[in-house]
Design goal:
With 434 residues, the protein is an alpha/beta fold. The chain has a domain of 271 residues: P-loop containing nucleotide triphosphate hydrolases (Rossmann fold, 3-Layer(aba) Sandwich). Helix content is 53%, strand content 14%. The chain has eleven helices and nine strands. It has a six-stranded mixed beta sheet, sandwiched between helices. It has a three-stranded antiparallel beta sheet with strand order 7-8-9, with no helix packed on it. A hairpin with a 2-residue loop joins β8 and β9. α8 crosses α9. The longest helix has 108 residues. The radius of gyration is 50 Å and the shape is elongated. The chain starts with a helix and ends with a helix. About 1% of the residues have low confidence.
Length: 434
């Protein structure tokens, strides 16, 4: 019999019976509380907003401490997410708080893709948790959960309407994280302008289909206060770490030439409402919504991409082993197909390379033959020229020899005539007087 059938029968046949005395399982809530306090809690906040809206100051004010961090500038080339984790202690409850800030958000001329690094960061945290969950040996109780539990979206106090960047970003994030919109530095506009601005923001969010986080009203203990606070969204907040003496008390406030704005005065801003809703009343619900709604949606999509389903086409429970085997066979088939394609491609490329090499070899042979013939022609020309020069040299030598012979003969003839004339003078002295 299938396990689901057994569970169904057990559920249908369950009876309520009275106890004759005290058993002790009524201490389970206390056990759970003690275990949770021992393990501690984690809470991760994503602060999204343009540079200079007071995100860091508001975090310091919310948790009544001074978090370390470098001030951001307006010269960032793109959006970068900076994550810092802190260990906080209140009474005997420990909280591992992670604050993620979007450095450079809205500072670029082209803001079209400003939301992408934020979406990729949120998905990366979901993926890390999913990989830990799918391990054979899991240590989820010791795993640091880095999934974003709430996104505080800071809206500039323009008093007019939401920027297109704000609408696009919140639309991309609403299915991945709990969004609580807040109007930063709300003391920059008047009360009447602030009221109209809130109405305008709510109207634009609804008309554009942006789903923001609604405080739960299904729990009777918090239904009334959550229902009231849902009507105050978005919260108009002010942050300050400076304390001023007002009356006989030191309070967090901001001093202006025209007066003092008290951070914790609900007549001045909604900071107290935000702190109550975010930390004291709904922190656990935000954690639960992140796990049961946003993470489950991501997990379901990823597993469906991997081929896993709850039921087969016959509406029967789907076997994980069968799914794994089917996916494995499919993967092996695709792998073999790719291997065959790569082999065919390799053979084709080898053939093409061989043809290119043969063509290159043919061209080299033709070039060699041309050079050889050219060399032979040049050699023949040189030989002919050499022969011609040799003939000219021989002819020159013959002419030279003939000239030397004629010169020597002429010299001998001239010498004999002189001797003959001298002899005649000697024999006939009268020739000398003449």
């Amino acid at each position: 019999m299938a396990a689901t059938d057994i569970a169904r029968q057990v559920g249908e046949g369950c009876r309520t019976v009275p106890l004759a005395g005290h058993v002790g399982f009524d201490s389970l809530p206390d056990q759970l509380v003690n275990k949770s306090v021992t393990q501690g809690f984690c809470f991760n906040i994503l602060c999204v907003g343009e540079t200079g809206l007071g995100k860091s100051t508001l975090m310091d004010t919310l948790f009544n401490t001074k978090f370390e961090g470098e001030p951001a500038t307006h010269t960032q080339p793109g959006v970068q997410l900076r994550s810092n984790t802190y260990d906080l202690q209140e009474s005997n409850v420990g909280l591992k708080l992670t604050i993620v800030s979007t450095v450079g958000f809205g500072d670029q001329i082209n803001k079209e893709d400003s939301y992408k690094p934020i979406v990729e960061f949120i998905d990366a945290q979901f993926e890390a948790y999913l990989q830990e969950e799918l391990k054979i040996r899991r240590v989820l109780h010791a795993y640091h959960d880095s999934r974003i539990h709430v996104c505080l979206y800071f809206i500039a106090p323009t008093g007019h309407s939401l920027k297109s960047l704000d609408l696009v970003t919140m639309k991309k994030l609403d299915s991945k994280v709990n969004i609580i919109p807040i109007i930063a530095k709300s003391d920059a506009i008047s009360k009447s302008e602030l009221t109209k601005f809130k109405i305008k923001i709510t109207s634009e969010l609804v008309s554009n289909g942006v789903q923001i986080y609604q405080f739960p009203t299904d729990d009777e203990s918090v239904a009334e206060i959550n229902g009231t606070m849902n009507a105050h969204l978005p919260f108009a907040v002010i942050g300050s770490t400076e304390e001023l003496k007002i009356g006989n008390k030191m309070m967090k406030a901001r001093q202006y030439p025209w007066g003092t704005v008290q951070v914790e005065n609900e007549a001045h801003c909604d900071f107290v409402k935000l702190r109550e809703m975010l930390i004291r009343v709904n922190m656990e619900d935000l954690r639960e919504q992140t796990h049961s709604r946003h993470y489950e949606l991501y997990r379901r999509c990823k597993l469906e991409e991997m081929g896993f389903k709850d039921t087969d086409p016959d509406s029967k429970p789907f076997s994980l082993q069968e799914t794994y085997e089917a996916k494995r066979n499919e993967f092996l088939g695709e792998l073999q197909k790719k291997e065959e394609e790569m082999r065919q491609m390799f053979v084709q490329r080898v053939k093409e390379k061989e043809a290119e090499l043969k063509e290159a070899e043919k061209e080299l042979h033709e070039k060699f033959d041309r050079l050889k013939k050219l060399h032979q022609d040049e050699k023949k020309k040189l030989e002919d020229k050499k022969k011609s020069l040799d003939d000219e040299v021989n002819a020159f030598k013959q002419r030279k020899t003939a000239a030397e012979l004629l010169q020597s003969q002429g010299s001998q003839a001239g010498g004999s005539q002189t001797l003959k004339r001298d002899k005649e003078k000697k024999n006939n002295p009268w020739l000398c007087t003449e």
